[in-house]
């Protein structure tokens, strides 16, 4: 059953209490969403038609909806800015020609990571270059990209797009500064409490 349809006017925001839904753009499935995930915020924040179709993919599902007027009263300030940032990361129309190299921010055996900026929007991203092996994308890199495309979570780096040349694959992702969670945990003098562990694992 359809919950929302691409192109229609949006009037509600949805949270998944139970079950799963599929998100489709132009008839192509782009991701699945499960319990505690949300959708429908873009049309309300930017006052534009729905950009995707969402339909229930599990046998049963329970969805909570919030009308636009209530949504606008609740979602403001930092919460609104974070949602808008996450939405901009979903712009898969970004191409290599849209990006300007700023500097190298990481390098290793697998490849190089560069800080890049969108020429028009000034949005900053991380662009990782990975060398192909025998002309093919390494299996572990392909699995990582496929998994990230399925996930939309504030604690997990968002993938924006991938680009290929004959020798390399370029992975455009959300720019996350401040180090890794693993490094931060190692600086804590004791183990994480149950509450903190539950928070970080979602």
TrEMBL record:
Gene3D superfamilies for this protein: Jelly Rolls, Phosphorylase Kinase, domain 1
Stretches assigned to the Cyclic nucleotide-binding domain: 1-75
GO molecular function: ATP binding; cAMP-dependent protein kinase activity; metal ion binding
Stored InterPro entries: cNMP-bd_CS, cNMP-bd_dom, cNMP-bd_dom_sf, Kinase-like_dom_sf, Prot_kinase_dom, RmlC-like_jellyroll
Protein keywords: ATP-binding, Cytoplasm, Kinase, Magnesium, Metal-binding, Nucleotide-binding, Serine/threonine-protein kinase, Transferase
Keyword ATP-binding included in the entry's annotation: yes
Superkingdom of source: Eukaryota
Chain ranges passing through the membrane: none
Presence of keyword Nucleotide-binding: yes
Cofactor dependency: Mg(2+)
GO cellular component terms, semicolon-separated: cAMP-dependent protein kinase complex
Domain Protein kinase residue range list: 99-202
Pfam families, sorted: cNMP_binding (PF00027), Pkinase (PF00069)
SUPFAM superfamilies listed in its UniProt record: cAMP-binding domain-like, Protein kinase-like (PK-like)
Protein name, UniProt field: cGMP-dependent protein kinase
């Amino acid at each position: 059953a359809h919950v929302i349809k691409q192109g229609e006017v949006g009037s509600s925001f949805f949270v998944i209490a139970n079950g799963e839904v599929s998100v489709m753009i132009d008839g192509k499935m782009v991701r699945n969403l499960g319990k505690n995930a949300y959708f429908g915020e873009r049309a309300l924040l930017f006052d534009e038609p729905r950009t995707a179709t969402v339909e229930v993919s599990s046998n049963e599902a329970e969805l909570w909806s919030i009308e636009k007027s209530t949504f606008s009263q609740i979602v403001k300030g930092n919460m609104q800015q974070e949602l808008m940032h996450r939405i901009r990361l979903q712009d898969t129309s970004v191409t290599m020609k849209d990006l300007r190299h700023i500097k190298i921010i990481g390098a290793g055996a697998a490849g190089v990571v560069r800080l890049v900026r969108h020429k028009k929007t000034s949005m900053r991203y991380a662009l990782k270059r990975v060398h192909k092996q025998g002309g093919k994308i390494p299996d572990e890199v392909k699995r990582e990209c496929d998994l990230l495309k399925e996930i939309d979570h504030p604690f997990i780096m968002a993938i924006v797009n991938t680009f290929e040349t004959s020798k390399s694959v370029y992975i455009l992702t959300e720019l996350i500064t401040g180090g890794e969670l693993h490094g931060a945990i190692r600086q804590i003098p004791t183990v994480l409490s149950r509450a903190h562990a539950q928070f970080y694992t979602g």
